[in-house]
Amino acid sequence: MQIYKVGGAVRDRLLGKPVTDIDWVVVGATAEEMLANGFRPVGSDFPVFLHPKSGEEYALARTERKSGRGYGGFTFHASPEVTLEEDLIRRDLTINAMAEDDQGVLTDPYHGQQDLENRLLRHVSPAFAEDPLRVLRVARFAARYAGLGFRVAPDTLELMRQLSESGELEALTPERSWKEISRALMEDHPQVFIQVLRDCGALKVLLPEVEALFGVPQPVAHHPEIDSGVHTLSVLEQAALHKQPLSVRWACLLHDLGKGLTPQSEWPQHIAHEHKGLKLIKCVNERFKAPRDCQELALLVGQYHTHGHRALELKPSTLAQLLQSFDVYRRPQRFEEFIAACEMDARGRLGLEERAYPQADYLRGAATAARTVAVQPLLEQGFKGPELGEALKRERLKALKAYKEQHPQ
Ligand code: CTP
Q1: 285, 209 in Cβ contact below 8 A?
Q2: Is the CB of 57 under 6 A from ligand 1?
Q3: What structural domains does the chain harbor?
Q4: Ligand 1 centre and the CA of 241: distance in Å?
Q5: Distance between CA atoms of 192 and 185, rounded to whole angstroms?
Q6: How far apart are CA 24 and CA 374, in angstroms?
Q7: Could you tell me the CA-to-CA distances from 257 to 186, 210, 231, 367, 372 in Å, in that order?
Q8: How many angstroms separate the alpha carbon of residue 134 from the centre of ligand 1?
Q9: How many Å lie between the centroid of ligand 1 and the Cα of residue 233?
Q10: Is the CB of 91 under 6 A from ligand 1?
Q11: Is 94 in the pocket of ligand 1 (CB under 6 A)?
Q12: What whole-number distance in Å separates Cα of residue 365 and Cα of residue 237?
């Protein structure tokens, strides 16, 4: 049997990037031989094994043929006769279809190295279409390598367009889609992920609520970029520049969905878009079964981002309600993430990327002021149950009034 390093490990070494996990392909072996050598099988009908010591994945060289819709609709053909070239041709991109032997000799039948040099994300063969998830993968690689100047090859974009129009994307499971989306959002240029999905017509299938933002104007005084979709991409770009966590990036992507529902007659105003957007955010959250922290933050940011921007003008009672809605007394971190998302929203506007955002410190200070109200003295005064809750609210409001007086605009 011959063993080769394949996929991302070869690609990233050639790009001079750190290699995190290594995938191997085994040519000329049977499953029985692998088991006899101590490899552990991963699935029952999937010819992939784990190395007994390193735990890395070793796959038998295989060909795949599509037998139905969706990811389940595959039959695998793995046998010792399948060649390395046959295994590589069924892979997604040429830059992912190179192999390296233990001497470091490269097998590159589909010119991946040339595409690396030309900064091109290009499909290997028509077999690309066998897995619709690859539409998301290519967009994710575009987001990852945009800084190096990579772009999607025109033919590949066309194939992605055909796949998007074919209805195949609907067959993806929420779990597989979310894995790609969440990884893409954590790349250096997540806005490129959304842009590429849009360019190939996948955005209107996967996230029609985001697609609907493009072409919707906002008031130029607050939004020199005007277009709501362009704004959303800029907010995402800012979130990545400021190294925000996934929950903040997800909230940034969805914060303005309500603007896509505004009747044209009301443009460029978007009255109550924060509230109108909530049902859309809920729907997107559920479509991808996003993790709970992402879901919650997206809804809260959707509802309250304008409060964030107006923080310095808010009445103490509104501030108190805002802090309560975030359960800031038990979940201080979530409020920090809200502030971060608001700041990214404020900076994701043409020419305003470097603006100061004094609202952030003001909100932090308000949260601290409200949190310093101690329960103990109230207990000592004999408050209990619902009355204790009311007394706490009164004291917090008092603290917020004092805070506002100390911080006049
Ligand atoms: N692959 C593919 N089609 C998919 C998934 C994977 O062709 N839908 C192939 C590619 O050759 C890829 C390899 O399997 O390089 C390993 O896949 P994976 O580990 O998911 O990705 P990597 O390319 O290693 O990239 P990453 O750095 O994102 O892990």
Answers
A1: no
A2: no
A3: 1-118 (3.30.460.10), 372-406 (no CATH)
A4: 26
A5: 10
A6: 59
A7: 21, 7, 12, 28, 36
A8: 9
A9: 26
A10: yes
A11: no
A12: 27
Residue nearest to atom 15 of ligand 1 (CA): 7
**Residues in CB range of 274: below 8 A, 6 or more apart:** 258, 302, 303, 304, 305, 306
What's the 7 CA to ligand 1 centre distance in angstroms? 6
From the CA of 96, how far away is ligand 1's center (Å)?
7
Contact 34, 3 (CB under 8 A): no
State which amino acid sits at residue 240.
A
Q: What is the pTM of this model?
A: 0.94
What residues have CB less than 8 Å from 121, skipping those under 6 apart? Answer: 93, 95, 115, 138, 141, 142, 145, 150, 151, 152, 153, 156
Per-residue pLDDT of the chain (409 residues; tens, 9 = 90+): 899 999 999 999 999 999 988 999 999 999 899 999 999 988 766 689 999 999 999 999 988 765 555 555 556 677 888 999 999 999 999 999 999 999 999 999 999 999 999 999 999 999 999 999 999 999 999 999 999 999 999 999 999 999 999 999 999 999 999 999 999 999 999 999 999 999 999 999 999 999 999 999 878 888 888 899 999 999 999 999 999 999 999 999 999 999 999 999 999 988 989 899 999 999 999 999 999 999 999 999 999 999 999 999 999 999 999 999 999 998 999 999 999 999 999 998 888 888 899 999 999 999 999 999 989 999 999 989 999 999 999 999 999 999 999 987 7
Distance CA 186, CA 148 (A): 17
The residue to mutate among 92, 145, 180, 193, having the most atoms of ligand 1 within 8 angstroms of its beta carbon, is 92
Give me the helices (H) in 288-356, please: 292-309, 316-325, 332-347
**Token output for 215:** 């072409």
Is residue 133 lining ligand 1, measured as CB closer than 6 Å?
yes
Q: How far, in Å, CA of 136 to CA of 193, rounded?
A: 8
Ligand 1 atom closest to residue 23's alpha carbon, by position in its atom list: 16
8 A C-beta contact, residue 43 and residue 17:
no
**In angstroms, what is the span from residue 252 Cα to ligand 1's centroid?**
28
